[in-house]
Design a protein that fits this description.
The protein contains nine helices and 14 strands. The chain is of the alpha/beta class. Helix 7 crosses helix 8. The protein binds zinc ion (2 copies). One zinc ion (ZN) binds at residues 115, 117, 198, 220. Keywords: cAMP, Hydrolase.
């Protein structure tokens, strides 16, 4: 009997650490292993499908972002550098359960062109023969360039409803007045346009609204300091109340070069340092820190070595600021 009792005690002593260890392990497995930086689901206000994310030379991956209210298939397409290759990639990534023709013709309800540089509009022009009837939105100066340089019958057939004859009337030019909220046809969204300074050109920021939530997309832009401009300052003033109220769900902005890029070679673009200086102005005007704000970094320019450097510089500068920097991938949906 005594031997038996000793055996039980020994067994208990032997099993106890295993039991405790198992409990700990068990507990650990219930802790969140990884909090995703980007979430898609019921809590999101917007769904963004990047069709192209880079700023140069890779013609299969140039600026274009489909944005819709979460749960809707009615998208606005912000810039249109790459369409077909991006849609195909997105279908491979299961972003859409549809054929690419359907995504192009039915899901994209209109294009928002920030400026007429080819890396922001080439996809629209090349895909125009296969596209459906829709609006091309932009500031007057951008649409004028599209009308007089691309849909001209000289560089391409005129698929629009203005400019050179005959007009094939597939696209309607919809001129946006700066700062005036306009409904986006066939979607549940509204848009406001703001001028940006991009070297010799006027580029555009688009503020999309769905109910009480906003996404701000900036086309190519330089910093006010370098461009001798007030355009970004005016934009930050306009969106500061939305940041303060937590209504700005994401800000999409370019960083094209690393900090080492000389001023004379910026060509109206941002570096990590210039971006952070600008966002510090936004924080100041908002009267709040930008901690946790979703900032989607667009228009990184290859080569890949430079892209890696830009990311390292951005992440370093963000350590104190604690924004949620997002590096979009072609075809991978984002939820904000
Ligand atoms: Zn560009
Ligand atoms: Zn540009």
């Amino acid at each position: 009997m005594l031997v038996h009792r000793k055996l039980i005690t020994l067994t208990c002593l032997f099993l106890l650490p295993i039991f405790v260890f198992a409990q700990r392990k068990h507990k650990k497995s219930y802790q969140p292993k990884h909090i995703p930086t980007v979430t898609a689901g019921a809590a999101s206000s917007f769904r963004i499908v990047p069709l192209g994310v880079l700023g140069g030379i890779d013609e299969s991956n140039l600026s274009a972002y489909m944005v819709a209210p979460a749960g809707s298939d009615n998208y606005a397409c912000l810039d249109a550098g790459t369409l077909h290759a991006g849609i195909e990639k997105a279908i491979k990534e299961n972003a859409f359960d549809a054929r690419s023709e359907k995504v192009l013709k039915q899901y994209i309800k209109g294009y928002f062109i920030s400026h007429a540089h080819l890396d922001h509009i080439a996809g629209l022009i090349i895909n125009s023969p296969e596209d459906s009837t829709k609006n091309i939105y932009g500031l007057a100066s951008t649409l004028e360039t599209v009308k007089t340089h691309y849909f001209t019958w000289e560089s391409w057939a005129n698929f629009a409803d203005d400019g050179g004859n005959p007009q094939l009337r597939k696209y309607h030019y919809s001129v946006l007045q700066p700062g005036v909220e306009t409904p986006v046809d066939n979607t549940e969204m509204q848009v406001q346009a703001f001028p940006l300074s991009h070297s010799n050109l006027t580029s555009t920021a688009f503020l999309l609204r769905s109910k009480d939530s906003y996404v701000l997309y900036l086309g190519d832009t330089g910093a006010d300091e370098k461009e001798k401009s007030q355009n970004l300052h005016k934009l930050w003033e306009a969106v500061a109340p939305l940041v303060a109220a937590g209504k700005l769900k994401a800000l999409m902005i370019e960083v094209s070069y690393a900090n080492e890029q000389p001023d004379k070679s910026l060509f109206g673009h941002l570096t990590p340092r210039l971006l952070m200086n600008e966002l510090d102005v936004l924080a100041q005007l908002s009267g709040t820190s930008l901690k946790g704000l979703n900032v989607v970094i667009t228009h990184l320019k290859p080569p890949y070595k430079t892209i890696t450097k830009i990311k390292t510089q951005l992440n370093y500068l963000n350590t104190k600021r604690e924004m949620n920097l997002v590096y979009p991938r072609q075809g991978k949906p984002l939820g904000f």
